Amino acid sequence: MEKMKKRKAIGAFVKGAAYSLTALLAFSCGNSQQGGMPALSLAVMTVEPTSQELNSAYPATIKGQQDIEIRARVSGYITKLCVDEGAVVHKGQPLFLIDAVPYQKAVQAAEAAVEVAKANVATTQLTVDSKTELHAQNIISDYDLQTAKNSLASAKAALAQAEAQLASARNDLSYTTITSPSDGVVGTIPFREGSLVGTTTQEPLTVVSDINKMFVYFSMNEKQLLALTRQKDGSVNSMIGAMPEVQLQLADGTMYPAKGKIETLSGVIDLSTGAVQMRATFPNAQRLLRSGGTGTVLIPSVLDSALLIPQSATYEVQDKKFVYVLGDSSKVKNTEITVFPLDNGKQYVVTSGLKPGEQVVVEGVATLRDGMPIQPITPEQSAAKVQAMTQQMQQAAAAQK
């Protein structure tokens, strides 16, 4: 019973101390509103112009400069894998070997057909030459000579057909060695030695990704795009050309050492998301980036004479942003502001609505009303009060043990 009473006493003390902390942060004993209620003691800051660089973050996906699906152009069994998954390959390097014996036999047969066709042409040519002399001596008729010439034309056509079949057979034979169409990195290889593949195989043999340069895709909503475009001459090309180099934050939170450049903007806004896709290109000499990865694109904006306020100092009404400005007699006035379209997630850059030297309330905004008097304190004083009360609570709790 003694322990239970002690625990209840400590709990009541801590709860009372918490209420005291809230009261200390919210009220001041020095000033009073009409009716005897103490004025809120809230932190305010003086707005001063400063040079600031803001980074806007956009989730991104990473792809190779080109991801080429490797497919078989002839049917057959894979006899050899020349590379392994993840291997770095060069243009023209062999990747797979398909059983070439049937295609070698087809080439030999086509070569034999060409030789037969050549012999027929030669024989028919002799016939035409002979009948031409006989026709000159009026020994044979025009019909016989023309028939011989027609036979020669048919033999030449047969030779051309045989040569075309030989070229096709040689092409098929060359396709039994599947080579890389570009420099890049080999992806997964679902088919191994002994697998039957062909032109109808739905899944590619592998994918070769050209990762010398990487394409990083991210999306920007329509409002952000319009705001950035209007800052220039209204031209998307001018906007892209004037945009600074961007950075890439990798999935582990580290920054990619090289900077990239925004190069393209999709011409159609996605109706389902209301966003437009943009593409930044990053060099990848160290091959640190891989196709299929994710990251975050950071777009910097350097602003001169910027008026910065914490986002916590603002509130919204019908998509409009407002702050409370400290006026005469320490009374607050709600003031509409407009902000720069890019932000760092913690602060807004005010483009209109505030003037240098004005004081803005930066805490307790949800408790204020237009014309309400407060007791202004600095953010440092507010933080010191919180720290002091926290220490008192900890000391009191320790004394009860």
Return the CATH class of the domain at 73-207. Answer: Mainly Beta
CATH superfamily of the domain at 73-207: RNA polymerase II/Efflux pump adaptor protein, barrel-sandwich hybrid domain
Q: How big a fraction of the residues is strand?
A: 25-35%
The CATH architecture of the domain at 73-207 comes to Beta Barrel
Contiguous helical run count: 6
Rg for CA atoms: 41 Å
Largest sheet: 12 strands, antiparallel
CATH topology of the domain at 73-207: OB fold (Dihydrolipoamide Acetyltransferase, E2P)
Query: Structural class, from helix and strand content?
Result: alpha+beta
Arithmetic mean pLDDT: 85
Overall outline: elongated
Tell me what you see in this structure.
The chain contains 6 helices and 20 strands. The protein is of the alpha+beta class and 401 residues long. Among the domains are: 56-65 and 211-302, Efflux pump adaptor protein, beta barrel domain (Elongation Factor Tu (Ef-tu), domain 3), CATH 2.40.30.170; 73-207, RNA polymerase II/Efflux pump adaptor protein, barrel-sandwich hybrid domain (OB fold (Dihydrolipoamide Acetyltransferase, E2P), Beta Barrel), CATH 2.40.50.100. α2 runs antiparallel to α3. The longest helix is centred in the N-terminal third of the chain and has 36 residues, at 101-136. The chain is elongated and about 135 Å long.
